[in-house]
């Protein structure tokens, strides 16, 4: 139930907007985030709950870098 | 930089003391099965499924109350799909619907806004169930309803916070050696609360994403921490989780909700874990539900506290199956018993 999926903001209309998930475009509430068109957001139950910092591939690489960092400190 | 291959090798050959690691979130439990993670790690590492499925911990009394509202003239109850099959004391939403109760499935609470505008004669009651991830969505719904002057929307709240529940679990189940934290609640709460838990209970808490890789890395991190005597919060989901979480969401939660004890199905009441609408928003409140412990023979509570695995419950797969569930953990798609049942061999 707490699943959240990343999508790309393609249109902003005040605190709502359109987010694309592949070829599907859905109206999403943007009231919890500060976003620009082109940003990736994490969407849960029709609401963007956070802006994603990096794209997926970069994220997996960053994961190992983070691990390295946390295990060495 | 260590590779996934080396991590897998180390987890497979781990021969240190037996460890119990709890994955708190139902979405993690599902990902662990999907990726066959139990087969990839040493038998000395046991993964336990925690209480992180909001549907599973919603009481029968709550379902009963929601159904009663759905049977009230001019009332429509809106719910997420995964609640439909959960039974109250006599019926589930699906059964009540077949009986004429007005229950509609929603994908997003915001659907209520259009419905409420189109049908001012109806009151739309949202079965507002969920953790920190979902609660701010309901707060946004209220903001928008208030802005748009919509008055025929009400919340029947059973919103819970998982972080204080983990504090309680760490206290009563000290044999759990480390925690894979629920990533999507951490998006909202931030990591500070988890760092405090790590310090207080001297256990590693690792926030991570939902791919197999994320989970393996989190397990490896916990094992390494334990081996080197550390007990820290590590955030491996920095893509979405920040130290302070989503401030906007937290401010909205504070604006609309008071914190009070909540009832967890199968477990009982846990202090500080419930979010209830503040007095000044009473016109949006569909009422409070008083819950009591039911079906004592269902061991959901012990499963969710990491004391047993679902297959250790005497009813698992015999008296209790997804078609004849005895407990909510078997009903919900993210319930530990249901996930174990669907993936049993
Ligand atoms: S198998 Fe069924 S009865 Fe046993 S703990 Fe799980 S839900 Fe409860």
Provide a descriptive summary of the structure in words:
Chain A is an alpha+beta fold. Chain A has a single domain, classed as SH3 type barrels (Roll). Chain A contains one helix and five strands; from the N terminus they run E-E-E-E-E-H. Chain A has a five-stranded antiparallel β-sheet, with no helix packed on it. In chain A, strand 1 (5-13) and strand 2 (16-21) form a beta hairpin. Chain B has 345 residues and is an alpha/beta fold. Chain B has helices at residues 4-12, 26-34, 37-40, 60-70, 93-98, 111-118, 135-147, 162-172, 183-189, 192-201, 212-227, 247-256, 300-304, 328-331, 336-342, and strands spanning 19-25, 45-52, 75-80, 103-106, 123-130, 153-160, 178-181, 205-207, 233-235, 257-264, 268-277. In chain B, the strands form two sheets. Chain B has a six-stranded mixed β-sheet, sandwiched between helices. A five-stranded parallel β-sheet of chain B has the order 2-1-7-8-9. In chain B, strand 3 (75-80), helix 5 and strand 4 (103-106) form a beta-alpha-beta unit. The two termini of chain B are 36 Å apart. The A-B interface holds A 1-4, 29, 31-34, 42, 44-47, 49-50, 52-54, 59-60, 62-68, 70-71 and B 1-4, 25-27, 52-55, 80, 82, 107-111, 129-131, 133-134, 136-137, 140, 143-144, 182, 184-185, 187-188, 209, 211, 213-214, 217, 220-221, 224, 232, 234-236, 238-242, 246, 248-249, 252, 332-334. The complex binds iron/sulfur cluster. Iron/sulfur cluster binds next to helix 13 and helix 14 of chain B.
């Amino acid at each position: 139930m707490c699943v959240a999926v990343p999508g790309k903001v393609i249109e902003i209309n005040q605190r709502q907007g359109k987010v694309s998930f592949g070829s599907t475009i859905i109206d999403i509430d943007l009231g919890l985030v500060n976003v620009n068109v082109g940003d990736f957001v994490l969407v849960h139950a029709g609401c963007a709950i956070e802006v994603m910092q990096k794209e997926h591939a970069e994220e997996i690489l960053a994961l190992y870098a983070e691990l390295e960092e946390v295990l060495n400190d | 930089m260590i590779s996934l291959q080396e991590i897998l090798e180390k987890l497979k050959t781990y021969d240190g003391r037996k460890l119990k690691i709890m994955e708190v979130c139902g979405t993690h439990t599902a990902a662990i099965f999907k990726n066959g993670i139990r087969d990839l790690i040493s038998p000395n590492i046991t993964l336990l499924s925690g209480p992180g499925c909001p549907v599973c911990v919603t009481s029968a009394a709550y379902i009963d109350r929601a159904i009663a509202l759905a049977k009230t003239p001019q009332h429509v109850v809106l719910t997420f799909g995964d609640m439909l099959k959960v039974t109250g004391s006599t019926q589930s939403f699906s059964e009540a619907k077949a009986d004429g109760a007005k229950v509609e499935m929603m994908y997003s609470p915001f659907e209520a806004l259009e419905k409420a505008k189109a049908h001012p004669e109806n009151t739309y009651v949202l079965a507002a169930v969920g953790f920190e991830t979902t609660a701010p969505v309901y707060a946004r719904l209220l903001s928008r309803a208030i802005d748009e002057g919509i008055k025929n929307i009400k919340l029947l709240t059973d919103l819970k916070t998982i972080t204080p529940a983990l504090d309680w679990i760490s206290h009563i189940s000290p044999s759990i050696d480390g925690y894979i934290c629920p990533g999507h609640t951490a998006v909202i709460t931030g990591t500070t609360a988890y760092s405090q838990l790590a310090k207080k209970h001297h256990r590693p808490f690792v926030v991570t994403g939902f791919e197999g890789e994320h989970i393996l890395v989190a397990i490896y991190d916990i094992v390494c921490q334990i081996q080197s005597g550390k007990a820290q919060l590590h955030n491996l989901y920095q893509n979405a989780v920040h130290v302070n979480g989503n401030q906007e969401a937290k401010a909205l939660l504070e604006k609309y909700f008071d914190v009070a004890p909540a009832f967890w199905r199968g477990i009982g009441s846990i202090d500080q874990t419930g979010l209830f609408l503040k007095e000044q928003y009473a016109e949006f409140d569909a009422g409070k539900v008083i819950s009591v412990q039911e079906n004592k023979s269902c061991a959901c509570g012990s499963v969710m506290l990491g004391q047993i695995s679902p297959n250790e419950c005497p009813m698992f797969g015999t008296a209790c199956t997804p078609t004849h569930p005895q407990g909510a953990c078997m009903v919900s798609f993210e319930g530990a018993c249901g996930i174990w049942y669907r993936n049993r061999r």
